[in-house]
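Aim 2 progress update. The chain analyzed this quarter is reproduced below.
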Amino acid sequence: MTEKPTVSVLGTGIMGAAMARNIARAGHPVRVWNRTRAKAEPLAAGGGVSVADTPAGAVEGADVVLTMLYDGPAALEVMRQAATALRPGTAWVQSSTAGVEALGDLAAFAREHGLVFYDAPVLGTRQPAEAGQLTVLAAGPQARRGTVEPVFDAVGARTVWTGEDGAEGSATRLKLVANSWVLAVTAAAGEALSLAKALGVDPHGFLDLVAGGPLDMGYLRAKSALVLEDRLTPAQFAVTTAAKDARLIVEAGERSGVRLDVAAAGAARMERAAAQGHGDEDMVAAYFASFDEPPTA
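Predicted structure tokens:
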């Protein structure tokens, strides 16, 4: 049997940890690094995963390097720390939501170090990540896809190829469009619940009203339940990360001559909720941004 490629995962937050675990379960040797080592240590308990002290230690000898970090600048900083141990020809799967502008710097780093660059953000939150049911949006050279596709199969239920050149950012651009919809729906759900609260309307009455009709959706019910049942932690996708993504969406629109009022308002709500102390909670905790004082039960 052919040996499975060794995979390095840099960044073991909500998404990175789940992805690393599923890659190991698929039989790949996995080495991980995280800025706070304690957050990576639990991965070693399941077998197949070793924890490195430095990014360079994690990527040494790796066939595939997967970055799942906060944003583009963070990914570039960590890859620079790993640079001395990177081998030319290594596949770099860049899965952070980096934004269009930052992607150029990442692709330039890949060219400088002879890496095969794959722009490969993912759609999904904690639960699908843990279940290996993410959707991978990927762009990169056809010739080396055989190396990275087993990794995509380990973390996702579906891979959508958007182009041959990862540097063009076609996958990142599609991810931003998808996230603009997700964030808009999340903000709208929170505002509907906050208005119900303010008007003395039973939120379950609202949900019953739209049940089964064209205005109903599973996502509305899932996010509403997190607020109504006070299950905002552990976050499926944190407020602070959602605020960052919303700003990337707004910036991408501005660079292309499009004004995105809903995304800008959503970013402001997320940032306000974070300032109120909800930054580590699920992104639907932007609900609290509607109130000057914490709402009573």
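Residues 206 and 222 are 14 Å apart (CA to CA). The first strand starts at residue 7 and ends at 10. These observations will guide the mutagenesis experiments scheduled for the next reporting period.
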